[in-house]
Amino acid sequence: MRKAVILLVSLSAGFALALATLAQAAQPEVKAGAVSNTGGMVVYVAVDKGFFAKHGLNGKAIVRNTGPELSKAVDTGEVDYGAANVGNIPAALERGLDVKAVVGYVGGSYAKSTDDNMLAIVVRPDSGINSIADLKGKKVGTTFGSMNDVYLVLLARKAGLSETVVNRINASHPSMSALFDSGGIHAMAAWEPYVSNMLNKVKGAKLIIRGGDYVCFCAALHGKPKTVYKDRSVTQKFVDAMSEAAAYVRDPKNLDEVGRIGSRYIRGMDADLIKSTHKYWVYDMRLGKNSRKAFNESVKILISQKKMKKPFDPAKYYDTSFIENTIKRHPDWFKDLPGES
User: What would the DSSP string read from start to end of 209-264?
Assistant: First the structure.
């Protein structure tokens, strides 16, 4: 009798596992690309806390070092949706990348067209730099093609410096802290949590500027049209999942869990550092007129740098119909966010 009960329990457990496996297999798979920094927190949380699964998707996080890497992965079909910020996506679109942005990723571009409180310029104690004007002739780490470089160039110009008199050194974000710590540069234009990490690690290092509403460190998730429009219901589920996950990320009571999840995905960052720098980031999945304005402002800078030849209509990039649908059906997920300015 006992053996029969054990056999029945085993069969039941096996049947339940098989059903769960079949259910997961029946869910459409969506591969969401995120950059390996705290900008990707909503994607990480959507996977780890089951928001993709809740909305009927088998969601996977595909992590890369930069937005341009993700855009290439989208173009080749390796990733369904990839993140790209307005500092680099316009140039890729001009070169022929055919994608549609359907939901935000990071930044507060819906409320206003500038959001750069997570950006800063940090200087070493032996640098002799006390202002942006002092960057002349100095070696300054930055990331070519990303928003921290746009920020640095714009600040230099406002201080009367051409970007050619600042010795800009290309640094990928995984190597930022090490390069700064070793003294290989005099200053670094970076984003959080790398900014705080450098300030914590190098005694006497200081911040000469943070934010200032000069640029928009904002990004969206985009996919190829054949992915976005093949099954609009799947795309809508994806946008819904991202929006609900973002509400979770913004909720202060979830900060410990957000820090823990982030530390699993972001190389070299512990939960405490992620938690302490969380306040500098805005996770607003909405897209609107200010997103398009931020895009156009970035295009002006890219044209002045000769990285683009002419303006590009942001309406060809953004499809806000999905996120607008989400907002209409689930206003509670956005009630803590400011309205459009």
Answer: EE--SSSB--EEEEE-HHHHTT-HHHHHHHHHHHHHHHHHHH-GGGHHHHHHHHHH
DSSP conformational letter for 78? S
- Closest C-alpha to 146, from 315, 317, 302: 302
The encoded tokens of residue 195 equal 């900014």
* 225 preceded by a cis bond (ω within 30 of 0): no
Output the CA–CA distances (angstroms, integers) from residue 226 to 94, 264, 320, in the order listed. 19, 32, 17
For 261-302, the pLDDT digits (tens) are: 999 998 888 999 999 999 999 999 999 999 999 999 999 989
Q: Which two tokens stand for residue 118?
A: 């997570």
Residue 339 has pLDDT above 50, yes or no: yes
Domains and CATH numbers, the chain: 2-113+216-334 (3.40.190.10), 119-210 (3.40.190.10)
**pTM, rounded to two decimals:** 0.89
- pLDDT-based confidence at 46, cuts 50/70/90? very high
Q: How far apart are CA 150 and CA 154, in angstroms?
A: 6
The residue type at 283: Y
> So what's the pLDDT on residue 240?
98
- State which amino acid sits at residue 125: P
